[in-house]
Structure formats: structure tokens, C-alpha cells
Amino acid sequence: MLSTVVKRFANAKGEEFTAVNGLDLRIRRGEVVAFLGPNGAGKTTTIDMLLGLTRPDSGSVELFGQPPQQAVRAGLVAAVLQSGGLLPDVTVEATVHMLASLHPDADPEQCMSRAGVSDLRHRKVAECSGGEQQRLRFAIALLSRPDFLVLDEPTAGMDVAARREFWAAVREDAERGMTIMFATHYMEEADQFADRVVMIDRGTVVADGSASSIRAATSGRTVSALLSPDEAAALSASPGVRSCTARGDRHYFDCADSDALLRVLVNETSAAEIEVAPRSLEEAFMAITHQDHSVKEGLR
To answer: Which residues form the ABC transporter domain (predicted)?
Structure first.
């Protein structure tokens, strides 16, 4: 899909910088792929190239064996972006039906139902919340019955219930064979809904695999316990303890050797309600995107 892609830009001072640096990415049909990276990592630029909104300086981008612009024109690719593309004074129903006229096989009512906006049909777009507008964009994206759906921060502004309904609809589409790639800052979404997680940093892939494999690839666990501040401070200086964070009466230790810390907690402190947990995907993300290049190579 993307082969050794490079994209450069110039800043306000005319200085050139590389947004995407030799990125390689292949996505299999029917996959749900989370596309993660810190701000400035090259996510949006990569998505823009996939959608044919910008061209790479070198390397190649292909969707279904053709240039992105062709695939988009053919209705094979659709996107839900973070903003824009909606007329504020038009109702939700009129918006969907108007755009459905561009696609001969579109079923606007079904698309509104799948996106959860049927009850908003008489509301003007300007009167919809940010999350409701995202669901409207989702309905529009479904009109062409795409084979590949790109989602850029799709649940921004949605409440918890709307977010769950959205991902249930996306999962149904994936089960029908649609390929889905989504960028998000909600790590729990990537953990729960993605078949595969791709992390990029400084324009290149730094980790690629299932969420569980990426969590496992970053060493260490989190040990937490109810503990006095003095005991927590003493433990923070123990070998293998990277950091200690207090949340109320509970202290959380990021450590390389959880067994050793557990022995100290049980035998030498007044610790209660001790818990041990593997790294979350968010913790793995922070570790990977702050590591040096040689460490990242082992996660690809």
C-alpha cells in the first residue's frame, strides 16, 4: 500500500523538514488497523497521501492496485475526518440525501441508521454537537459502500455511549469484509477494537503487531499498593524502579522486576491491597515513542 514513502515540507522560515521518512505499510483486506503516533509523527500526512489529498515526494502509494485518487473516485475508499465538509444550515437528512445522489447504489436511510443519526434527521448541522457531526460524517462515508474506510479521530466529541455504538457499527462493517484504518488518541479504543496496531514516530513505523504483542514487547509491569508516603519514597530509590506516582493513598511503581518489588512490599513494608498489572497500551506507546532507534527496531 505504501512503499518507502517520503514526504517533505517547508516551515514558515523556509526550512525543509521530513514529515514521512521512508514509511512502509501493507494492510490486508478485512483488517481493523489502529494508526498511532505522537503529535507531529506524520499520521495526518500519511492519511492525506492514502486519500490522494497530497502526493509523496518519493516512494509509491497504491490502493487496490491503483493510485489513491482513482480508488477514491471509484468509491472504493471513504474517510471520516476530524473537521470540515459539512454545510451548517442544512439538516442532517438533507445532507445525507444530497450526497447520496452522487452514488447510484447508496441507501441513505440505512447509512443514517448504521451511523446512529436517524433521530437527528430534522436537526441542522450547526445545531449538532461535535460528536453528532462525526457520526454524520460516518453516515456520509458509508454512502459509497467503500471497501476501505479511513477514520481520523472518529470519536472525538462523542460521549461514552455514542463511542460504544460507533465502534459496534464499525465492527459490523469489518465483519462484512471492509478494511478499516483509524487514527486515535484514545488508546483504549486501539486496545479494544483493533486487530493490529501500527505506531509511527518521526515519519517511520516503530511498532507493528497486535496490541497484546506490543504491550508484551515493552519490558516491565506496574505494581501498585496502599502505602505510606515515606515507604513509597524509600521504594522509589530501589533498583529496578523507574518511577513512582501517587493517586490518593495508592502508589504506582513502574518497574523492571516486579517480583523483586513484590518481595520487598510483602516482607518489609505495611503495604495493603497490592496489585500487579502489565503495561497498558498507553504506557507501551509512551515507552516506544521515547526510546532510541535501536530499541524500536526490535518492535517492528
So the answer is: 4-227
R_g over Cα of the chain: 23
Domains and CATH numbers, the chain: 2-76+146-215 (3.40.50.300), 219-278 (3.30.70)
What is the distance between the alpha carbons of residues 243 and 251, in angstroms, rounded to a whole number?
10
pLDDT digits (tens, 9 = 90+) for 227-251: 999 999 999 988 889 889 999 999 9
Q: Closest by alpha carbon to 152, among 214, 82, 217, 89? A: 82
Q: What is this structure's pTM?
A: 0.80
- How many residues are present in the chain? 300
> What distance in Å separates the CA atoms of residue 154 and residue 237, rounded to the nearest whole number?
42
CA distance 199 to 34: 8
Residue where the block lists cell 447510484: 104
Nearest CA among 238, 244, 245 for reference residue 264: 238
- Alpha-carbon distance of 140 to 257, in angstroms, equals 50
Cα–Cα nearest to 179, from 154, 212, 146: 146
- Of 27, 12, 28, 35, the C-alpha closest to 205 is 35
